[in-house]
């Protein structure tokens, strides 16, 4: 019975939509009366309310965000219950996205209310405007019916539930991207080109394959989970929903690998910001505004990116040296025009600090900032203080626990007699996970597990000899406790 009412209601609603197309056949005054009376009739008999969500909206016929969210929301139940599908290849994706086919109907239950969704389409009237001609022959829309006693529930809760869930499905279906900034001379906002270019993000690193002490790893995972579930908490404490991580340690200890693992864990995009290609603080802000939520913004090797370290000191010293500098400048010939711009336009420490936690940093929400460095001691304390870089993570040399992860990944071995010897050597020798991984890597078919473990023992022994030789000669190998090895 209920279904019959819903059917009657939705049929009359469809008639309303089709009415404009009947204008060719009905005189204008009749069209008006017909529509008016049928609406009255519908309201009198039909206890059901109806929503229509068209695919394209606005003068420019943009695809409606609400339509996309509903489509994604219904795609989950559609793959299980529908008999008639539409399948499309998602943008930048190699997956088929399923949606309801024409005239397909689905029911949905929400907090005790039953709702009916259907997918419809109607032919497109040819445009009279010579400027706007569309290629489409039909226009799709979703139709929702429910009993009027659920009006408040649907308007207050159900529709936001559909939007939220639909957006979440869209995020998980999307092909994640790795962005990099384009030189500003190639930016073209007139044609709505972004200052970022991108490729699909396909790095396979995960926290399972990341070699580091387990306690440290689970601490980072817990921190990430708390961040991505913390929308309400951040709002409550009045803090922008973002978190900064500083990853520091010698080359080859897995800083970049960790960033990829973080992105895969959280299902985020990555914006890899090449700071040396950014000419000014204004450009930096523009780049930031063009990033989206659910992303990690990375600045690798922050100590090498720009001369950010001395900026504040320079400012302080400046007043004392002002006169002297001014005199020197006056004595020198003027810089050529291009060079003058370069001198003026560069990213400064205060520009970068603004980028991290100024007013603009709150736009978009749900963003993680990661800085990496081999030389943490060179960074200005203002740049990495808690609140800007909230969590400092040292990426250490390879310990036995980390080795076990690498042995499992690279050689498929979890326990072996040689492990004892390796454990002792790792306690005496500083070696990066990258070097251990290289020794364990299978380079030819005939190299078995034992050969690869023995190869690692050889590498560790020769590293130990090197260190001992260095100590005997009284020369420092540059690898004292806590010291960071120079990247040659
Ligand atoms: N902790 C680790 N866990 C798993 N693999 C690692 C780890 N550290 C290094 N590797 C391996 O070594 C290679 C180099 O690591 P990665 O590029 O992450 O080092 P990095 O710390 O970013 O070095 P750099 O400071 O030179 O940028 C990676 O491709 C990865 O295979
Ligand atoms: Mg790196």
TrEMBL record:
The chain crosses the membrane at residues 6-26. Residues 241-399 form the AAA+ ATPase domain. Keywords: ATP-binding, Magnesium, Membrane, Nucleotide-binding, Transmembrane, Transmembrane helix. PROSITE patterns: AAA. The keyword Transmembrane applies. InterPro entries: AAA+_ATPase, AAA_N_dom, At3g28540-like_C, ATPase_AAA_core, ATPase_AAA_CS, Mitochondrial_chaperone_BCS1, P-loop_NTPase. GO terms for biological process: response to stress. Residues 315-342, 465-488 are annotated as: Disordered. It catalyses: ATP + H2O = ADP + phosphate + H(+). Residues 478-488 have a biased composition (Acidic residues). Residues 319-330 have a biased composition (Basic and acidic residues). GO terms for molecular function: ATP binding; ATP hydrolysis activity. Its cofactor is Mg(2+). Belongs to the AAA ATPase family. BCS1 subfamily. This is AAA-ATPase ASD, mitochondrial-like. It comes from Ananas comosus (Pineapple). The gene is LOC109703772.
